[in-house]
Amino acid sequence: MTIDIDKEYQKIKAANELLKSKIFEQKFNNARNVVILYEDGTDTTLQVIDIMDENYQIPLLKTSSICLRENIQNLVKKNHDELVDLKSLNSTIINHYEKGSIPDPLMTVSEWADKYRRLTTKTSSIPGRWKTSNTPYLKKIMDCLSVSSPFEQIIFMKASQIGATEAGNNFMGYAIHHVPGPMLYVLPTIESVKRASKNRIASMIEESPVLSSRVAQPRSRDSSNTVLMKEFPGGSLSMTGANSSTGLREIPVRYLFLDEVDAYPYDVSTEGDPISLAIKRTQTFLGKRKIFIISTPTLKGFSRIEKAFKETDQQYYHVPCPDCGEKQPIVWSQIKWDKDNPETTHFVCKHCGSMIPESEKDGMLEKGEWIASCKSTNSKTIGFHLNALYSPTRWFPWKDVVKEYIAAKDDPAMIKTFVNTNLGETYDEPSTQVDGNLLYYRRESYDVEVPNDVLVITAGVDVQGDRLEAEAVGWNEHKESWSIDYRIFWGDPDQPEVWEALDEWLLREWKHATNHRLQIQVACIDLGGHHTQQVYSFCKFRRRRALAIKGVAGMGRVIVSSPSKKRTGNEQRPVPLYTVGVDTAKEVLYSRLLKTEYGSGYCHFPNSEPPYSEQYFQQLTAEKLITKSAHGAPRPVWELPSGRRNEALDCRVYAMAALELLRPDYNHWKEFLATEAMDDSQREYFARKEKVMARLLGTSRKKPRKVSSSWMKDVLDGPIGRGE
Ligand SMILES: [Zn+2]
């Protein structure tokens, strides 16, 4: 087909003049590309004009190019950026152009959210229109994400409960509706992003009409809306997990949202740091891209969000004191309360000493402003820090933060969570070096097998080539622990004998200080090594009591996660396999071993030797947390020095996992232990009675049968062992 280029050009020029005049009439004062699309019988023509705001010192009419639809492919190859804008604007511009109107002037993300974002009761405690004024501190952050802002990287290091996710949602909605382009949303794992897509993002689209009209219904057969990909006129939203290298390597993106980066893996399929991989995809859009990086921080020295934040101008939100008017950030050290009475919580002005009640907070937030605390090394990057003390009172009042602090303050593992999620700061591990000798010398005498404060017992079992090792650990409701027994069962795990010995030990009763007898509630057995089949078979017939587990390395994992079901051989019923985040468990354990005062988290050891010998403590404290550098990012790694053994550490970690899986009802056990226990003679009598009942009623192995009264008398009155 031949095209009369001159004729086409004249047509476009005429239309273009018209459009330009309309644009100028309206004092269109923001930047954007404009596309005009003509349907001309058999062919389609497109025109691209860049009209830029004078503030950006870019000519209002930068380029003018004509191309035919059949040439789009060439254009794509030449300039991908242009294609995106072609796609993005052709529907809106043509629509407005035909109606003789021009599109909305460019808005900021907060203006967009106030105008278009709707919330329903499903996702918000305050349904209705989104109001930026409810969380005034988010305004500037959102506005930096607007295309009219010069910043390309926006870093947000934050606590939970302050609405950061909503700022991100607004950014996504804005990109879908107002300035469409290719967008990528990354969460730590594929599973987490699928959940977010099905719940949070699907709700956002459904609730706001301007979004639901642009994104296809998820139920339709249209493949343009799947869990991991939403297409809309002018762009697409792809979603992936930081653990997927393919998801991070696909098409170029203009908008990149990296969420919860401190939980990202350090290395994705050996291709390197997922953040760098994702940022590489924005290269084509240099100068126009928007990269939003947010996270609650984790460990000091390893936190990615802290590292990124430190490279910015580090802005903090300053609020005015209602008394002296001086502006200052709301910091934890200025939050005060009367001992053990969180209801008295208030903020102390660092300038005039005035005690400011919580009721003043929302008013102070309104008048707040972001202030940089240093100079940024990169003018395209801006960083914000916010703790949970800024959370609007109705979401998370100061007194609740204080209550969480009081509950956490004695447990190193809980205080770490408090510092990360409420203060939005990294946690500086006091030390991960535990002195095994010190633990050996502070062993205690228990007097009884199981001390009085123990409520439940769990066990961890490590499988080695020629033996099983196991520890039984007692716990109270504050996760204070008492080592009860450590055993080594020698024998080939391919043979049944060693498992029978373990079984006997797992089923035995332990004498509690109250005279009650306790049993091991749950044992976790490690599947690692070469005896997986034996472990499965063992666990299969002891369903709830013995659980197969597999340790997985990686900081930031939960201690136990939901099981996968494994079928073994020809068996019909699958055996659940639980995953244990061993690195996290070791971190928690070592912080507890460092505790020197009795109470929550403290670890007690008996002075019975063996098994609690110096060698046991050397194994328990064998591993060290060291820093390794991989692809330029430091990562914490647990390392076992060569020549050291660590079975005792593994057993303890599995016993901790068993407690997590058990989730005991501590009150039930307290009530049980408070009842009067049988003494030895009563216990013996009941054992005899049970034996008679078993004979009369039958057991799983024996059929019921008649017994003579003399046999019964013998059993009940005579020495144990008679009457068999
Ligand atoms: Zn003051």
Task: Write up what this structure looks like.
This protein has 724 residues and is an alpha/beta fold. The protein has 4 domains: 5-98, no CATH class; 109-314 and 374-386, P-loop containing nucleotide triphosphate hydrolases (Rossmann fold); 442-610 and 651-672; 680-717, no CATH class. The chain contains 22 helices and 30 strands. The strands form 6 sheets. Strands 6, 7, 8, 9, 10, 11, 12, 13, 14, 18 and 19 form an 11-stranded mixed beta sheet that branches. Helix 21 runs antiparallel to helix 22 (709-717). The longest helix is centred in the N-terminal third of the chain and has 21 residues, at 5-25. The termini are far apart. It binds zinc ion.
Number of domains: 4
CATH superfamily of the largest domain: P-loop containing nucleotide triphosphate hydrolases
Number of strands: 30
- What is the CATH first-level class name of the largest domain? Alpha Beta
Ligands, deduplicated: zinc ion
So, CATH architecture of the largest domain? 3-Layer(aba) Sandwich
Distance between the termini: 104 Å
Rg result: 33 Å
- Tally of alpha and pi helices: 22
What is the helix fraction of residues, given as a range? 25-40%
Q: pLDDT below 50 for ≥5 consecutive residues: which ranges? A: 19-103
Taking the sheet with the most strands, its summary is: 11 strands, mixed
